[in-house]
Amino acid sequence: MVIIIQLNERQEKIIKIVKERGPITGEQIAEKLNVTRPSLRPDLAFLTQIGLLEARPRVGYFYSGRTPNYGVIEQIMKLRVKDYKSVPVVVTEKTSVYDSIVALFVNDVGTLFVVSEQGILEGVVSRKDLLKTALGKIDVNQLPVGVIMTRMPNIITTTPEESLWSAARKLITHEIDALPVVRKVSQHGGEKIEVIGRISKTNITKVFVDLGLGRLDILGGKND
Ligand code: ADP
User: Fold this and answer.
1) 162 in ligand 1 pocket by Cβ < 6 Å?
2) Beta-carbon neighbour count of residue 69 at 10 Å?
3) From the CB of 150, is ligand 1 less than 6 Å away?
4) Nearest residue CA, atom 6 of ligand 1?
5) pLDDT tens-digit profile of 181-190?
6) Contacts with 131 (C-beta within 8 Å, 6 or more apart), sequence order
7) Going by CA atoms, what residue is nearest to atom 19 of ligand 1?
8) Ligand 1 contact via 125 beta carbon (within 6 Å)
9) Cα gap 74→87, rounded to integer Å
10) Tens digit of pLDDT for each residue in 71-83?
11) Phi, psi torsion values for 150, nearest 5 degrees
């Protein structure tokens, strides 16, 4: 896998300073860059993590001279959707907007997937879709959710084998909160997609937190 890491302007400057003056403390680097020490922390952490800089207690930072160690980043890319997905919360097209709102609360989610009786994906309805409808004068007990949902084929999906990173990127690019995890099934001679899970911003955030706590066994990789 080829991973290209572009250092930002400040990181380039830090590398230059450490190359010339290392070992040098974080305080001294901050002084040279005219910024505060805390504001440098993320850049220093990143440069240390990829192995370009090394940090020694009471001595400071020095340039490792090594090719960046992209191990951690590479391992993050190996996390798969299937290992982090949640159970999907689904309704059918005929479910009323009222019952859909109840389903949001009962299941503590922000997005519902709309499926056929056979579990085939037909649409997605978000909390704001429902909120907008509830603000109108329409009777939410009578209105089926199929009328207000975002409909196939305009649904952004992910698959069990896709990387979690790539799924996270879809959430950001399309400005949405959740993706249905799907698999292809053949039905009536055609190919349809069946909903088998859910990836939301919460799943991604949990992984991020676990990573920081050292709870994620990413270095050993997750077994299937
Ligand atoms: P909210 O509307 O509560 O902010 P989202 O940002 O997830 O939640 O949804 C924004 C819009 O995109 C909504 O109209 C919703 O129906 C639609 N949407 C949500 N998820 C998807 C998806 N996976 N694919 C396509 N459209 C989606």
Assistant:
1) no
2) 13
3) yes
4) 176
5) 999 998 888 8
6) none
7) 176
8) yes
9) 27
10) 667 778 889 999 9
11) -80, 130
